[in-house]
Design brief:
Layout: E1 10-13, H1 22-28, E2 34-37, H2 43-49, E3 55-58, H3 65-70, E4 76-79, H4 89-94, E5 98-100, H5 107-122, H6 125-133, E6 152-156, H7 160-171, E7 175-179, H8 185-191, E8 194-195, H9 198-204, E9 207-210, H10 224-229, E10 235-238, H11 247-255, E11 261-264, E12 284-286, H12 295-313
Parallel strand pairs: 1-2, 1-3, 3-4, 4-5, 6-7, 6-9, 7-8, 9-10, 10-11, 11-12
Helix pairs in contact: 1-12, 5-7
Length: 336
């Protein structure tokens, strides 16, 4: 779909987490796009502001089949993130809408954040910090702690982020086992990890870190029965998607000391509700879905999302199409 000099495409930034659209505008001026910037708070608002849009840059709000059905002009949606579980892909494909994500803008940030949570939990840093500031000086209070070297880390989901986490953990001297049913053994071996089944991972690992996408298959993948398989000394971390973990089951596992501690950057409901029972616990560290963030990552995700729109309206196939079956309706798109 190549643009002419007379044609001006409307690009709607629907629910931005950022303060302005300077980065996107700088990229989109290549096709002379008319950019409209919004910070919508509901799906219904998106349906209203994007009614005349040719392209949509979506942040975090859901795009259900009902909303997509009302967007008759939109030809491309770019989810400004790695995950795209908030978009009804089936309806988008039915509507012949190309859906893209940005899969590589924050790999190092999320891997670093994962390691930060693991180290903070293993060394009990948040609790030691609070006690020291309160005037306590008693190392025995925080016993026992265990050496990381020689322990086993289990990674659920061995994509880009999972593999980067594995590299970091191996540098600390941990043995790494991983579960991902969609990858060949060679991928695990290339990192020096051992491919195992999920139940074996949960029962063997001293540290368990979740890095798989949220799908129908992974919804509440980690439930009450899975927590029962874990060691009482296990540290559990989730920086992927909140709904992969049954939060009620996690709460019970932590409250009953079935596992040692947990670190979460994602939750079933975001923002985290004030009455969420996880807030009562003293063996959990929580961060506000910030693992992705650095100044560099922010620029990268905004720029990359806008570049996908430029490619499409310049007659070039976008790089990261997550519903590739839709491309049969766009035979004119050239390879990048």
């Amino acid at each position: 779909m190549k643009s002419s000099h007379l044609e001006k495409f409307e690009v709607v930034i629907s629910d931005s987490s950022f303060e302005d659209d300077k980065v996107e505008k700088e990229v989109l001026k290549q096709i002379g796009a008319k950019v409209k910037f919004f910070q919508c708070r509901s799906e219904e608002e998106i349906a209203t502001v994007a009614r005349e849009a040719d392209a949509l840059l979506n942040d975090h709000l859901p795009l259900s089949g009902k909303t997509l059905s009302s967007l008759d002009k939109v030809r491309i949606i770019v989810r400004c993130a790695i995950g795209y579980d908030n978009i009804d892909l089936e309806k988008a494909t039915e509507k012949r809408i190309i859906v893209c994500n940005v899969p590589d803008y924050c790999i190092n940030e999320v891997a670093d954040h994962t390691l930060s949570l693991i180290l903070a939990l293993a060394r009990k840093i948040p609790w030691i910090n609070a006690a020291t500031k309160a005037g306590e000086w008693n190392w025995r209070k925080f016993a026992p702690m265990y050496r990381l070297e020689g322990k086993t880390a289990g990674i659920i989901g061995f994509g880009r982020i999972g593999r980067e986490v594995a590299k970091r953990l191996k540098a600390f001297g941990l043995r790494v086992i991983a579960f991902d049913p969609y990858l060949p053994r060679e991928v695990f071996e290339s990192i020096g990890a051992v491919q195992v089944g999920l139940e074996e991972l949960l029962s063997e690992a001293d540290i368990i870190s979740v890095h798989c996408p949220l799908t129908r298959e992974t919804y509440h993948l980690i439930d009450r029965e899975k927590f029962r398989l874990m060691k009482k000394t296990a540290i559990f971390v989730n920086v992927a998607r909140g709904a992969i973990v049954d939060e009620k089951a996690l709460y019970q596992a932590l409250k009953k000391k079935q596992i040692q501690a947990a670190g979460l950057d994602v939750f079933e409901t975001e923002p985290l509700e004030k009455d969420n029972p996880l807030l009562e616990l003293d063996n959990i560290v929580l961060t506000p879905h910030i693992a992705w963030y650095s100044e560099e990552a922010e620029i990268a995700v905004r720029k990359s999302a806008a570049e996908e729109v430029v490619r499409f309206f310049s007659g070039v196939k976008p790089k990261n199409v997550v519903n590739p079956q839709v491309l049969k309706w766009y035979p004119e798109l050239k390879e990048a």
